[in-house]
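USER: Fancy drafting a protein?

ASSISTANT:
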Amino acid sequence: MKLGFAITSSFCTLDKVLICLIELKECGYDIYPIISENIKNFDTRFGKKEDFINKVENITGKKVIDNIVDAESFGPKNKMDIMVVVPATGNFIAKLANGITDNPVNLAVKATIRNGSPIVIAVSTNDGLGFNGENIMKLINSKNIYFVPFGQDDYINKPNSLISHYDLLIPTIQEALSKNQIQPILKEYQKTK
C-alpha cells in the first residue's frame, strides 16, 4: 500500500514522527516522504535539518520530496492509497481549509484529495482552540479527511494548544481506509513527564 507521509514544522514533535515512520514501515507500508519548506530549511533547538532528513530517508528508503514541482507528482502520475500529515501545524490546517497550495505538503495533500484517497491529519498546534478552531472544524466536516484523535496537551500553560495521540495513528489510518473516522475524535491527553 502506497502511503504519503507529509511532515510540517512542529519541531518539538519530530522525534515522535520518526517513531511513527518506523512503526508504519514495520507494518509494510510503502512510504513516500514529503517535507515542508521549514523542515527543509531550518535547524532548531530540537535538531539539525540534515540529521532529521537523513533519518527520514533511511527509514523510508526514499528521498524526501521537498518542493512543489516534485509534489505535483502525487496527482494522476503517482497516486497514493492514503496520505498522512504528521505533525499538522496550524499553518498547514489553515491553508488546507482555505484551499491554499503554496508548498509541497499542501500540494501533495490537494493532489491526493483530487484522486479521492483519504487524508489523515495529526494535529499539533498551539492555536487549535483559538483562530484555527474553525479551520479544524471545517476539515472535520470535509469528505475524505480524517483526524487522529487529539486533546489539549498543556491546558494550564497553553490553553489553546492541541496535539494528536500519535499512538492512534495506525488505527486511524485503518479506519480511514474504510472511510470511517476513528472515535472518539476528542480524547483527553495525558502529558508525560
Remarks:
- The two ends are 36 Å apart (CA to CA).
- The mean pLDDT is 92.
- Residues 2-177 form a domain with the Rossmann fold fold (CATH 3.40.50.1950).
